[in-house]
Description:
Bound molecules: flavin-adenine dinucleotide
Radius of gyration: 21 Å
CATH architecture of the largest domain: 3-Layer(bba) Sandwich
CATH class of the largest domain: Alpha Beta
Oligomer: single chain
Amino acid sequence: MQAPVVHESGRGSALEVRYPTLIVGGGTAGISLAARLRNAGRDGIAIVEPSDTHYYQPAWTLVGAGILPATETARPEASVIPRGVTWIQSRVAAIEPNANAVVLEDGRRIEYDELIVAPGLQLNWDAVDGLTDTLGANGVSSNYAYELAPKTWEYIRNFKGGRAIFTFPAGPIKCAGAPQKIMYLAADYFRKHGIKAEVVYASATPAIFGVKHYQAPLDKVIERYGIKTMFGHNLVAVDGAKREATFEMLDDPEKKRVTLSFDMIHVVPPQSAPDFIRNNALLAASDGPTKGYLRVDPATLQNPDYPNIFAIGDASSTPNSKTGAAIRAQAPVLVQNLLARAASKALPAKYNGYASCPLVTGYGKLILAEFDYDGNPTPSIPLIDTAKERWSMYMLKRHGLPWMYWNLMLKGKA
Ligand SMILES: Cc1cc2nc3c(=O)[nH]c(=O)nc-3n(C[C@H](O)[C@H](O)[C@H](O)COP(=O)(O)OP(=O)(O)OC[C@H]3O[C@@H](n4cnc5c(N)ncnc54)[C@H](O)[C@@H]3O)c2cc1C
């Protein structure tokens, strides 16, 4: 059995196997939470994170459109672990809530006083027949992986005409806007370069966007580019050699299938909570749209059965739109609640489901969608109607948000 790699950055010792605060996952949620806890004076924090690299995933849309190099979206994990936090470089294989312990993939057990679960989503590429055999070849790409986003750009800029398909799978995904953003950028590129393209949006969803307020402006964008929409169509198979994609028609009583040929296809994989959560009968939500995610109260982010377990970010059962922006709203709530719990007080802070989605609608154009659990718009920028396409909001996405992410959010300051 191999011992976990432990990177010390201040307090905490490699020999310790019990931590007051143990965080699973050093992604957007895990790091921003740890930073805020350190800023609030907390000691004894450890993060279990297997990856050497931390990614700013929201910029992968820009990578896929040739606006940014992929390397600008990645930094060493060591550079984002807050000072004074111990990094255990390993992967959690199981949570044992009755023993207050997690089991690492190498068999080691780490105990905790309080556990924060933040491992993000699992991408289930294998759930689409034939997809893994052809990803990155035959015109098949996806912005949902660091290595593949540059391929999307390669296929867009080398597109000679024909059919370009953009898919959206059944079930919750991270950034529900990302499948359509890259489509608008591709359509804009084809138009500007005089390339004849039939652009198809084949989506398992019933409409272009789940929040009504933003549907009408997005419908106009679709009309402008002449995009053909196929709602209620779930991608089930890709044949790379034949360049064919097969969709199940979700509204058809017999679940009929339809096959389309393509010249390029941007695929968004089906997603779920990681297996170690969805297979944990004590912790996973057991029904409804949040089935399989780590069960927490949607307002306090606390597990109802194990009060020392909380979740933040994409892997939690909160029914918000899964985005980094949501985590920006969740992190201060969770910090307040953890501090109150430590002082034996009732949990005072409540998350309202805030999420935002910067919908890039072309090179230099963006609709900023911001909304809460009930789909009510919650604009945070005064005096500007961000439901209109704007250059200023595009500049925020291109320059402002990445800067804020690395310099403020991951440092617990925003
Ligand atoms: C193409 C794309 C575009 C997007 N666009 C936007 C956008 O415009 N705006 C926006 O707000 N959001 C956007 N997002 C979504 C945003 O990136 C995610 O919502 C956010 O990163 C979720 O944070 P998280 O910490 O929950 O998960 P992640 O950031 O994915 O981090 C999870 C971490 O947990 C680690 N981990 C996984 N399994 C284990 C395990 N078993 N044990 C320990 N650690 C583990 C992983 O290595 C990873 O580092 C986009 C995402 C993509 C892919």
